[in-house]
Design brief:
158 residues, alpha+beta, 6-stranded mixed beta sheet, 5 helices
């Protein structure tokens, strides 16, 4: 459990640094299995499935384009074998609008050989996310969200 928690703490610190300062992805990559998969809510600008370390790096680039800062205000962890459930309370600032979003996300993160192999975030309110990042202050249409997606084979929806 200590190794799992250490890996998660390193991963979340590297994630916040990447978003806030354009940090190096190497710190995050060191915590990820080569075949890691992340499943994001489809209606988000960075939604869909992201495969492999390269896919996670592209996801982080999309997150960094969307948000200029990420601060974890509270994190609670429940460990069950190779799976960890994390309750995150966070504050993000939208890059395009400057709006601040205080929200929570529950994540199920699975480990294999002490590396993250799967990430499944569950957002409290995806509409609030879309409102924060929208120029009009209202949620974007499905067509507008789809237009922002990466069309690469390892990007969202693939």
């Amino acid at each position: 459990m200590t190794t799992t928690m250490s890996a998660l703490q390193r991963f979340f610190a590297a994630e916040a640094a990447y978003i806030t300062t354009g940090g190096d992805f190497a710190g995050m990559a060191a915590c990820l299995a080569p075949d890691v998969v992340m499943y994001q809510a489809a209606n988000l600008p960075y939604g869909g499935e992201w495969h492999g370390r390269d896919g996670i790096q592209r996801f982080m680039a999309a997150m960094s384009e969307t948000w200029s800062s990420l601060e974890f205000l509270e994190q609670r962890f429940v460990v069950d074998g190779d799976a960890v459930v994390i309750y995150n309370v966070g504050r993000l600032r939208a890059r395009a609008t400057g709006r601040v979003l205080d929200t929570s996300v529950m994540q199920l993160i699975t480990f294999r050989d002490e590396l993250i192999s799967e990430i499944r975030p569950f957002y409290l309110d995806t509409a609030a996310v879309m409102t924060a990042v929208s120029d009009t202050g209202t949620a974007l249409s499905d067509a507008a969200v789809a237009a922002t997606r990466d069309s690469g084979s390892d990007g969202p929806g693939h």
